[in-house]
Design goal:
This protein is α+β, with helices and mostly antiparallel strands and about 475 residues long. About 35% of the residues lie in helices and about 20% in strands. The longest helix has 18 residues. The model has no long low-confidence stretch (mean pLDDT about 95). It binds flavin-adenine dinucleotide (FAD).
Amino acid sequence: MGAPDLTELAASFQGRLLTDAADTAPFLVDWRGRYSGLALAVAQPDTTEDVAAVVRWCAAQRVPIVPQGGNTGLSGGGTPDASGTALLLSLARLNRVRAVDPVNNSLTVEAGCVLANVQQAARDAGRLFPLSLGAQGSCTIGGNLATNAGGTQVLRYGNSRELCLGLEVVTASGEIWNGLRALRKDNTGYDLRDLYIGSEGTLGVITAATLKLFPLPAAQMTAFAAVSSPDDALRLLALAQQQLGAALTAFELISDFCIELVERHFPELRRPLAGHSPYYVLLESSDSDGEAQATERFEGLLGEALAGEDAPGRPTAAPCITDAVLASSLAQARSLWAIREHITMAQMAEGKNIKHDISVPISSIPAFLEQVDAELERRFPGVRVVNFGHLGDGNLHYNVSPPDWGTAGHPPTDLQALQPDINRVVHDAVIEFNGSISAEHGLGQLRRDEAARYKSPVEMALMRSVKQALDPLGIMNPGKVLG
Ligand SMILES: Cc1cc2nc3c(=O)[nH]c(=O)nc-3n(C[C@H](O)[C@H](O)[C@H](O)COP(=O)(O)OP(=O)(O)OC[C@H]3O[C@@H](n4cnc5c(N)ncnc54)[C@H](O)[C@@H]3O)c2cc1C
């Protein structure tokens, strides 16, 4: 059978169809430049009906479909393979805000809406849409839901899954399922919404979503604190949870090496505290009380952490922080967050590294780090760990860089060759600590085979049954999530 006739496809929907290599090129390589592929064409439909027409054409022709939103995914899920037989389906033009309901605290948007625009639409209605991550200026809500993205506010508001009330989906056969229910309660059978969320485009195409909104916080406090160890960071977390309760919205761990990288590649972002500490915590609270009360509570927390009290009047053996700065303006808070958000870019600027997106029970983090740091140093002397992440969720980006960066005359380490062994050390330990090898970035093609090794045969068989039931032709993003 020859290549399918694209003129027929072009006629079947109203959007754009790109076929020139120069036009399609940006869609065929992932954000990190790690994966690249080829495609028959890039289809850019404007409406859900057009998405359905494209999918029906693909199903009839048995053409694989690779959905793509903002192409910021970190697991290669939105990149086609090298065969050139797949159609890349970009949802970027499906980007309208359909409805806002401030009384129901809900917002319905199309899948291609950029996350920052979704946040703005909520703000325009006097509400908060709390999903927040470094790629928010480019990633789309469809991609966020397809990967069940986490980000920096999970501690208080949950992952993308918890922020979604309903979905509209084009199924693998090209039918439209309107599940845009703006309900907090709906126990009417299997939860199809939850099946599509996190399925990374392998079961169907998300075309719109109804999202949960929250009251805008009256006051937000941000601080950057130095801690001597992950253990002390956890003591600070416990204290902050006790003192701030649900107002604690973010709790990020950052190693000193991360700060060094940001300083080196983004010198305009200055180190917030003098001197060096092995680790830092960036913490944030969002209060419904006024500014004065929020400041008092937050200053009280930092004071107790510095003085070494578990609770007012109950001294502990040692303070859990050694220094701290509390942002005194929105601009200062933004510059503290900018440091956190530039770590990934600084790492990229420095050179290749091996990324891990792991989670373990929060209480196990110090033991996990002690074991894996030591094992990596024993097996691969001098490797450097770029460790940061959402400590409050037990999720760390435990990335590994070669030992020889910046060492003149040192032969470069073949990181690619070391990757399987380094992954094995890190991920075997993750499983030993009852964790996950992909906390928030999904499996895509990056973690597909490792997940198959670590998951039980029962779990893999159930996942294959779901895939077979919802995509019997196997055209939805083949080779991603499942082999
Ligand atoms: C600087 C930076 C920081 C990041 N920080 C975080 C973070 O803190 N937390 C986090 O979780 N992630 C983070 N990410 C990863 C990434 O931004 C998220 O995975 C995001 O949700 C991807 O959205 P996207 O629109 O770019 O999706 P894409 O990259 O285009 O696609 C991702 C996957 O979803 C599928 N997909 C996309 N749209 C649809 C759709 N409409 N229907 C069905 N399937 C679809 C694709 O096929 C692919 O498998 C970060 C990335 C960068 C570059």
